[in-house]
Amino acid sequence: MVKSSVLGYPRIGADREWKKAIEAFWSGKLDEEALHSQLQQIRLNHLRKQKEKGIDLIPVNDFSYYDHILDTAAMFGIIPQRFAYEGGAVPLSVYYGMARGTKDAAASEMTKWFNTNYHYIVPELGGTAPVLTENKPLTAYREAKQHLGIEGKPVIVGPLTFLKLSKGYDKSETDAWLDRLLPLYVQVLQELAAEGVQWVQIDEPIIVTKLSDDDIQRLNTIYSKFASAVPNLNIMLQTYFESVERYSDIVSLPVQGIGLDFVHGLSGNLKSLQAQGFPADKILGAGVIDGRGIWKASLREKLPLLDELAEIVSTDRLIVQSSCSLLHVPVTTERETKLSSVLKNALAFAEEKLDEIVLLTKAMASGSAEVETELERSEHAVQALQQSEERNRREVQEAVASISVQQPNRSRPFTERYAAQQAKWQLPLFPTTTIGSFPQSAEVRKARQLWRKGEWSNEQYSEFIHEQIDIWIRHQEEIGLDVLVHGEFERTDMVEFFGEKLAGFAFTQNGWVQSYGSRCVKPPVIFGDVAFTGDLTVEETKYAQSKTNRPVKGMLTGPITIMNWSFVREDIPREQIAYQLAYALRQEVEALEKAGIGMIQVDEPAVREGLPLKEEEQDGYLAWAVKAFRVATCTVQETTQIHTHMCYCEFHDMIDSIEAMDADVISIETSRSHGELIHSFEANTYRLGIGLGVYDIHSPRVPSVEEMTGMIERALRVLDPKLFWINPDCGLKTRGLEETIASLRNMVEATKNAREKHTAAV
After folding, report:
1. Which of 168, 520, 588, 688 is deepest in the core (most CB within 10 A)?
2. How distant, in Å, are the alpha carbons of 138, 141, 198, 274, 362 from that of 153?
3. What is the pLDDT of residues 150-169, one digit of tens each?
4. Which of 718, 724, 662 shows the shortest CA–CA distance to 693?
5. How do residues 502-521 score in pLDDT, each as one tens digit?
6. In which residue ranges of the chain is pLDDT below 70?
7. How many helices (H) and strands (E) does the chain have?
8. Which CATH fold topology does 393-416+491-603+619-637 show?
9. Any idea which fold 3-11+56-389 has?
C-alpha cells in the first residue's frame, strides 16, 4: 500500500513564535529553561499537525535551535577551539557563539544551502577528534513517541554531505575524517535501532552534484558499514534539489530506500528509472510535491507520473512525499485574507502540501468520489490563475521578446568610463562607502507600522523618513565616508520594497520563511507579468543628495536577486522573468540618472544561489543572469557609475561572470569567510573597481582598526590600489546605532592608515 511522508517541516511557526522565543533568549528576556519549554511546544505542534493531516512517516530531528548543519557539528563535538568548549553536551552559549560570534571569538562562516536562500553554518574540522555529545535523533524520536504516540522517522545529515560542506581540513584528509565520524554515526544508528526505530532518513543531497570515483567508494564504505552495524534498521537514503549523479551506483547501495526528487530533478531521475529500472529490494521515496515552491500542484498531472513509478517499483514499495524539506516554504495559507481568491486558491504552503501529499496517496489507493472532487477543485484553481489578465500583459511580453535578441552594452568600455568618472568625482585613493542600509530602530519600524495602518498620513511618514535621512547624512559626513547612501529607512526588505511598486507582484501577510538563524523573510510572490508603473526610489535618493555635497548612491535591488528571493511563477522560464524585471529596473535607473543621481548601485547578492547544481547547466544560467543585469544598467551615460554588491556565497568559480556584468564597482563579502575569496584574485586578474568587505555586519562585535587594516593589506597584495574601495560586508539594517558608528569610524581610520602607506606608491 502506498504511504505518505515529508522530509522536514518549517521550524518557525505560523506566527514566527520560534524566532520570537530565540531572540527573547538572546536579549535576556527568556531564560534557558523557558526557551526549551517554548521550543518544545512549537515542535510538538508541528508534529501534531502532520499526524492530524494523515502523514504516515513523520520526520523528527528536523527541528533546530538555529541550523541543522550546526546541530550536526555540535552533536559530534566539532567545535572550533576559539570557543573554549570543554566537552559534554554543547551549551547554548557555545552553540549560539558559533552561529553569531561572541565578544572574543568570530562566528563560523555562513553560506547558502545548495541553490536555496537558506543559509547554514559551515562546520570547521580541526585537530580535535570528534565525539558523540548527544544522540539528538534519539531524543527527538522519544519525545514524539512519548507525547504524541508518533513513530517518528529520525532525520540525520549524511556523512558525505557533512564532510563535503565542511571546511578547515585538507581534502586529502577526507577519508581520515570519514574514519573518525563513521563510528559516531554507527553509535547513533545502533541506539536508534535498539529503541525500536523503523525508518531513518539520512540526507545526502551532495549526491545530486558531480561525484568522483572516490566519492562513490566513500558512499559504499559508509552504507556498507551501516548495513552491517544495524541490519534491522531501515535507511532511506534521501536526495533532493536535482537528479542524482551516478544513478546505478547510488541505487546499488545497501540501503532499504532511496528518495528522489521528481520536481526539480524530474527529467534526469525519471529517465534513469525508465532506462535502468529500480532495485526490487528497495522502497522508492517519490518527491512529487515541490518542497521549495508555493504553487498548488496540478495533481492530475502528478497521478500519471506516480502511476508510471508504481509500474516500475510496485505500489507497495512507493512513498509519496515532498521533493525536499518544507523548511523552504511558509507554514499555511489559512491566514492570508488579503490576497485575491484566484491567487490564494492557487497557493500551497506547508500545511496545504501535506494535504496534497495525502490526497495523492489516497488517489493511488482508490478513485472515490470524494477524492475525485478534491482533484477537480485543485485543477480548477491552477487553471484560473493561468488564464488571469496578470499573466497575459502583451506589452511586457513584446518588450521582453525584443530584449532577448539584443546585446546590452555600455556606450564606452570600462577604461574610458573610469577616466571620465574620476574626472567627475575626484574621489581619494581607497574610497569609502557602505552597502546601503543603516540601522532600522524600533522607532523606524513603529513609524512604518503607523503609516501602513493608516494612522499616519503619507505626508507625516515622508517627513519622518526625511528626518532619518538627515540624521544619517550627518553621521556619514562626521564619520568621514566618501560616498554616502540615504539609509533605506522607507524599506522593509530589499526585495519586498520593489515588488510593492511593480505590477505582477503580490504580498502575503504571513508568508515567512527562515533565511538564516532567526532571520525570517517574507518573499514577494511574482505571479504575473512584471511591469514598471512609476518611480521607485527617486524621491528619497534625490532628497538625500540635496543635503550633502558628497555623492549619494541610488540603491536598487537587481533583477536576479529580486527573482531568486521571490517565489516565482512556474508557467514561463525563469530567464523570461529575469528580463521582465531587468526591463522594469532599467526604467528606474534612467529615472535616477535624470534626477541627477550619478552613482547607482544595483545589488545582486543572490546571483550565485540561483546557479544550477548541474555543471552542464551553469554557463547558460550565468549568461542570461549577466545579460539581465546589463539590460538594467546599460543605457546610462559613461560618467554615471554603476555599482553592485554580492555577499555570503562562494564566488571563486564565477569571477569571469562577475566581471562580465561590467559594473564600474563591485563590492563582495570577504570578512566572514576569512578572506578566502582573495585567493581567487591571486589566480585571476580583476580589471574593474572592487571593494572587499572588511568587517562582518552579522556579528554585534566592533572590529578593531588593526583587524580591518590587515584585511585591507592582504587584498592590496592582489588587487589594483587605484580600483580598490573599502566598505563593510553588507547592509547595516540589523545592527545597532552605537556599534555601527564605532565600526565605521574604525573602518575610516584603517583606510587613512592605508592611504598614508600606499599613496606615494600609487
Report:
1. 588
2. 10, 7, 7, 29, 21
3. 999 999 999 999 999 999 88
4. 724
5. 999 999 999 999 999 999 99
6. 648-652, 671-679, 683-684
7. 27, 21
8. TIM Barrel (3.20.20)
9. TIM Barrel (3.20.20)
